[in-house]
């Protein structure tokens, strides 16, 4: 386990020690990083385009004005502006009948070190229209490419809960409230396009996962797409250059990436894809940085290890690179029991689902990993079945290997069953998508068995029509509490292929 400082914050109040009869690791809730760098070059150009999708006809619509109004506290700003206007209108003295800007400037001159709240708002309306040289702010919208820095507009950050990423058009001719609404509207357009790009990346790199998330409500699936995109980019940092770069350089890159993650949780987006995650975190505040940081630890394991001696070693790796995804998305999925108690009960099944998915990926990709000189199967398991590393690299497919694969498949299915027992703990609108994802991934194991456990020459693949055919059965599984649906589920199971009944 990598050294680090345990910071038991937020997540620690509902994350228990993840131990059971299958492994013995105590999973740390958070590892703090001492990294200080805040700039990361565009190292993920192979994953995303240099600019985000500019298509205005996408299906993701901007947030309504009312929801933006409530979430950003514009109501309070509106009442402050109205009250300020009424105070000035009620002033009958000719000495105080000057414009709002003049009053504000004179007030700031009399007390430069202690501005009142009202004067700070009015001076903001003047200074936000000028840059550091005294020239009007440009009315163009800065593009958000993959390597752009955060763009902050003068005093806008004093009243905006998050970093602004657009400038105000004709700000010197707009009221304070008008500039705020304009900035919000432009930013929301960027957020919408950012989510659309996250959707595209998810659909491109994980068709099975994307199909499952498409069953979620709009706000939930957009947040899950943002998290998947971050996970994909994190993996891409080490997956491509892993063979040619030294691990020390990659560790530095991951430390920079972790510092960038910390900025995201402070509301600072460095590029368009970060912006989607910033917005998702603001909508689901129970999302914590701990599992994201643990995933970065998993990437470090991936560049330092190409063998795993025991299943305990492999379990820690699977938790960090996949089990953490369950913890990332659990606050988005929601639980049937509100509050921390509901989250605490759902933690272990959520992690189990991630472990099962990763074990399935490992079994599916044995042949590909072999070509890279990597063996994710625990060496103790190879020894148990008298199967050697050289046998694996020579693609020896015999009774020993078949028995080894049966053992691994049975283990993965145990974690899927553990995860399935926790589906009812989720909120009602999240059960069907999670069950569907679980069932579709389980079918990869069915295909592996149907292929005679030949994962050297044949990749276990689930066709699109088979995925769609899984959906009715997955829906029925979420309705087992109803006697009528339970009867239909039993009938559906009886019609399933024999391979689906293999329990390992």
Automatic annotation (TrEMBL):
**Reactions listed under catalytic activity:** 2 (2E,6E,10E)-geranylgeranyl diphosphate = 15-cis-phytoene + 2 diphosphate
Q: Per its UniProt record, what SUPFAM superfamilies does this chain match?
A: Terpenoid synthases
> Entry's PROSITE patterns?
SQUALEN_PHYTOEN_SYN_2 (PS01045)
Q: Which CDD domains does this entry report, sorted A to Z?
A: Trans_IPPS_HH
Q: Does the keyword field hold Transferase?
A: yes
Residue ranges annotated as compositionally biased, kind Low complexity, are 91-133
Q: What is this protein called?
A: 15-cis-phytoene synthase
């Amino acid at each position: 386990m990598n050294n680090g400082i345990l910071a038991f914050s937020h997540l620690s109040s509902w994350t228990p020690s993840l131990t059971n009869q299958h492994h013995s690791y105590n999973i740390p809730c958070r590892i703090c990083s001492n990294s200080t760098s805040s700039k990361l070059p565009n190292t993920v150009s192979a994953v995303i385009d240099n600019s985000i999708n500019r298509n205005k006809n996408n299906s993701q619509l901007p947030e309504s004005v009312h929801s933006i109004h409530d979430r950003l506290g514009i109501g309070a700003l509106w009442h402050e502006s109205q009250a300020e206007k009424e105070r000035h209108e009620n002033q009958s003295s000719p000495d105080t009948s000057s414009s709002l800007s003049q009053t504000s400037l004179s007030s700031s001159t009399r007390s430069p070190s202690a501005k009142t709240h009202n004067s700070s708002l009015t001076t903001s309306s003047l200074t936000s229209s000028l840059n550091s040289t005294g020239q009007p702010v440009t009315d163009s919208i800065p593009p958000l490419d993959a390597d752009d820095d955060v763009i902050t507009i003068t005093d806008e950050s004093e009243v905006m809960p998050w970093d602004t990423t657009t400038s105000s058009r004709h700000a010197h001719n707009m009221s304070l409230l008008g500039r705020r609404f304009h900035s919000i509207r432009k930013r929301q357009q960027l957020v919408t396009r950012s989510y659309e790009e996250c959707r595209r990346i998810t659909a491109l790199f994980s068709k099975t996962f994307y199909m499952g998330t498409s069953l979620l409500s709009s706000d939930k699936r957009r947040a899950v797409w943002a998290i998947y995109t971050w996970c994909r980019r994190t993996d891409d940092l080490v997956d491509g250059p892993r063979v040619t770069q030294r691990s020390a350089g990659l560790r530095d890159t991951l430390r920079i990436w972790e510092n960038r993650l910390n900025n995201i949780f402070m509301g600072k987006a460095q590029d368009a894809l970060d912006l989607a995650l910033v917005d998702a975190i603001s909508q689901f505040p129970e999302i914590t940085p701990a599992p994201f940081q643990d995933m970065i630890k998993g990437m470090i394991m991936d560049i330092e290890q190409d063998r795993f001696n025991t299943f305990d070693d492999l379990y820690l790796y699977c938790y960090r690179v996949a089990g953490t995804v369950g913890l990332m998305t659990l606050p988005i999925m929601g639980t049937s029991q509100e509050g921390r108690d509901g989250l605490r009960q759902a933690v272990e099944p959520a992690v189990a689902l991630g472990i099962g998915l990763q074990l399935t990926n490992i079994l599916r990709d044995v042949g590909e990993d072999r070509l890279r000189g990597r063996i994710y199967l625990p060496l103790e398991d190879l020894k148990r079945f008298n199967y050697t590393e050289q046998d694996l690299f020579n693609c020896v497919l015999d009774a020993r290997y078949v028995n080894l694969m049966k053992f691994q498949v049975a283990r993965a299915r145990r974690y899927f069953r553990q995860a399935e027992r926790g589906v009812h703990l989720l909120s009602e609108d999240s059960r069907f998508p999670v069950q569907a994802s679980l069932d579709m991934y389980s079918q990869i194991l069915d295909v592996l068995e149907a292929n005679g456990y030949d994962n050297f020459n044949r990749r276990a693949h689930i066709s699109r029509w088979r995925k769609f055919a899984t959906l009715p059965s997955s829906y029925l599984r979420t309705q087992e509490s109803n006697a009528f649906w339970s009867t239909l589920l039993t009938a559906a199971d009886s019609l399933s292929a024999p391979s689906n009944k293999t329990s390992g």
